[in-house]
Amino acid sequence: MSKKITFSALALTSVLLGACSNTPEQGAETTAEQQMKTMQVQVLYKDRSMLPPGSQLTVTLSDVSKMDVAAEVIASETVTLDGAPPYDLALTYAADAVKERMRYSVSAKITHNGELRYITTQNNDPFGTTQTQSPIKVMMERVAKPNESLVNTYWKAMKIGAEQVVVQQREPQITLHQDGRVSGFLGCNQVMGQYVTAQHFGLRFKSLASTRKMCMEQMDQEQAFSKALADTFSYHINGDTLLLKNEQGDALASFKAVHLP
Fold it and tell me: Among 32, 93, 165, 234, which is disulfide-ready with 75 (CB 3.0 to 4.6 Å)?
């Protein structure tokens, strides 16, 4: 009878010790889980532009309490996009990183090959009165492209008059060089000459000449391109688009800036 009691006591002690040894680890895991929170974010932009493949969205939760100091990043997540907005993303952050009386903001940006395409332009406080729903809605704006330089830029022809440019072998294009020369390709023949700019007329091409190769196709397009250059009186650049105009202000040709590797 004494041995049975002794054995039962030892067994009970072992169970209790085992329970005590597991409790701290389980408690630590539970505490760690409680310290992390997940915020559902939905990112949108207003225009209907389709993003090129490989575009990436980065969503960031930051502490923006301090003025004139870079925001402290609390959490950030980057995903590769597929399809049109809205884009839904889960942002996980440490709960103890968020303090009372501090100000926070969720920001987003879209990049493609390192080039910024969209970005948030306003504060989005996920813990304030402006955001009471889930997911947190974040609106982005398209980033305006800086105007390309007229000079030393490879301008690929897109439209001649109202007609889209058709490319057979090589794309029609022009380059205005720093020394006042213009060179390019009309679609069949090379073109070269000079250009001048002035306040009262904007842009004029002069002394234009071209090679005399005969092509079976696209001669009408080439002749129209050559005439557009001869009739140019002014130009307008908007981002990476160049528009040539005649003296009456009518569009003669449009071009797209191309950055060669």
Answer: 93
Helix H or strand E segment including 20? helix 2-35
Q: How far apart are CA 58 and CA 192, in angstroms?
A: 46
Q: How many angstroms separate the CA atoms of 228 and 161, rounded? A: 8
- Pairing of the two strands 163-164 and 173-176: unpaired
CA–CA–CA angle 202, 203, 204 (5° rounding): 135
Long-range pairs, 210-218, Cβ under 8 A, ≥24: 210/186, 213/188, 213/189, 214/188, 215/187, 215/188, 215/189, 217/168, 218/166, 218/168, 218/187, 218/188
Instruction: Give the residue from 260, 259, 261, 227 showing the smallest Cα distance to 246.
Output: 227
pLDDT digits (tens, 9 = 90+) for 80-112: 998 889 999 999 999 999 998 889 999 999 999
- Please check whether residue 244 is in contact with residue 232, taking contact to mean a CB–CB distance below 8 angstroms: yes
φ/ψ (deg, to 5) at 194: -135, 165
